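Q: What residues go here?
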């Protein structure tokens, strides 16, 4: 059985790992990057509290010595279902079964100026761009004599009140308190404002009311200005425009407000559902196709009675769908009855700052906050990293940051503009 997996995130990699060393199955994993990375900790790379290698690992290193797993670096250009093949930017691959595990990309809701000027928070590259941008703006502010321009350089607006928005806002607030004035004494007389804006009436809207209230209280005490029922409608000339007519002047709009799945040439239009996600049956087979499956954020499955509107786009869904599909591939070989996917919600959590987090557990229904919730968040994220090497490096960096209230990773490292980029790979 030749299985081709497009995407090496939570869903794709867990599917591949579960099929490891199966004598009747060959797996080829295709990804546009040559590494796997851990999205929940992207914001810590973006704020220079972790280095990129702490949350990433090369696919080929991971696959080394695993006889039935192969890696292919490439971008998917087209699917040809009738011939059971895919066309990449650097060749073709044939398959018996094709699995989309391509995740989601940043959605700007059609706002071109926001897309052009805001800083996204989705990929490792986004995190490095954000780190460089914020550090450069701090250096500019340190020598800027125009107070109005300096305030724009120091003001940060985070759009999106989900876990990413909350976590990055809290991190910025703690950096302002513990680092900014110590390393940038030139800025001691200038206020630096941090805004978190969201279109709903609460932060962390999918979580419990207790978590929402605790998070709002913690962010407010950290000095973050939280603006709810407020949507961004434009961002031009260093000014963020909101739907209620208000504006904020800033050079730092961080976009954590939405995601959408991707369209792929060759896939039938009827295969797509809400949010451009591929609609699947209970076994993750894509509607109107044969031998094509989708798992994780890129799919929407309406067959789970506990989630009639589709599963949330979170890591646990992707992991569990990857494991379930792997089990079904093995059952197919033995011509046994397949197992429909049913999501086991293990809870949700978000970190706000040092010793501050919220955790919701569904069974039994429990809510934690503060230091204990913070410890739970650290433990779960640490053990979820792909290798022991990642876990050790991340734990070491966290310990330094915890006791020193600082880290020495704030370096502006960027590629030479003279390096030529193959446009086919973009």
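A:
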């Amino acid at each position: 059985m030749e299985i081709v997996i497009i995407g090496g995130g939570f869903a794709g990699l867990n599917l591949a790992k579960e099929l490891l060393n199966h004598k009747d199955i060959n797996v080829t994993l295709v990804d546009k990057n040559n590494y796997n990375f851990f999205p929940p900790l992207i914001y810590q790379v973006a704020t220079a509290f972790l280095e990129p290698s702490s949350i990433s690992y090369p696919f080929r290193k991971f696959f080394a010595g695993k006889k039935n797993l192969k890696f292919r670096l490439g971008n998917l250009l087209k699917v040809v279902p009738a011939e059971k093949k895919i066309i990449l930017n650097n060749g073709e691959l044939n398959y018996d079964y094709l699995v989309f595990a391509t995740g989601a990309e940043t959605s700007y809701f059609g706002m071109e100026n926001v897309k052009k000027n805001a800083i996204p928070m989705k990929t490792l590259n986004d995190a490095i761009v954000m780190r460089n941008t914020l550090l450069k703006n701090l250096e500019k502010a340190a020598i800027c004599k125009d107070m109005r321009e300096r305030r724009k350089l120091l003001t940060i607006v985070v759009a999106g009140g989900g876990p990413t928005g909350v976590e990055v806002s809290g991190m910025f607030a703690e950096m302002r308190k513990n680092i900014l004035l110590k390393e940038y004494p030139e800025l001691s007389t200038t206020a630096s404002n941090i805004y978190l804006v969201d279109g709903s009436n609460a932060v962390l809207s999918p979580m419990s009311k207790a978590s929402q209230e605790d998070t709002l209280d913690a962010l407010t005490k950290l000095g973050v200005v939280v603006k709810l029922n407020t949507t961004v409608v434009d961002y031009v000339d260093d000014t963020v425009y909101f739907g209620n007519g208000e504006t904020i002047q800033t050079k730092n709009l961080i976009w954590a407000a939405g995601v959408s799945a991707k369209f792929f040439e060759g896939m039938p239009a009827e295969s797509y559902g809400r949010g451009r996600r591929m609609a699947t049956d209970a076994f993750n087979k894509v509607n109107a196709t044969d031998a094509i499956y989708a798992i994780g954020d890129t799919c929407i499955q309406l067959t789970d009675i506990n989630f009639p509107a589709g599963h949330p786009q979170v890591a646990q869904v992707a992991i569990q769908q990857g494991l379930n599909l792997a089990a079904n591939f093995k059952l197919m070989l033995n011509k046994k009855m397949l197992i429909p996917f049913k999501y086991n919600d293990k809870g949700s959590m978000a970190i706000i700052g040092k010793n501050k987090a919220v955790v919701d557990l569904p069974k039994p229904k429990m809510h934690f906050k503060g230091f204990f919730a913070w410890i739970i968040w650290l433990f779960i994220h640490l053990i979820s990293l792909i290798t022991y090497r990642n876990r050790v490096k991340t734990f070491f960096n966290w310990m330094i940051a915890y006791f020193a209230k600082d880290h020495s990773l704030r370096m502006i490292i960027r590629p030479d503009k003279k390096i030529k980029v193959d446009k086919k790979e973009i």
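A: Context that may help when evaluating the design: The radius of gyration is 22 Å. DSSP finds eleven helices and 25 strands in the chain.
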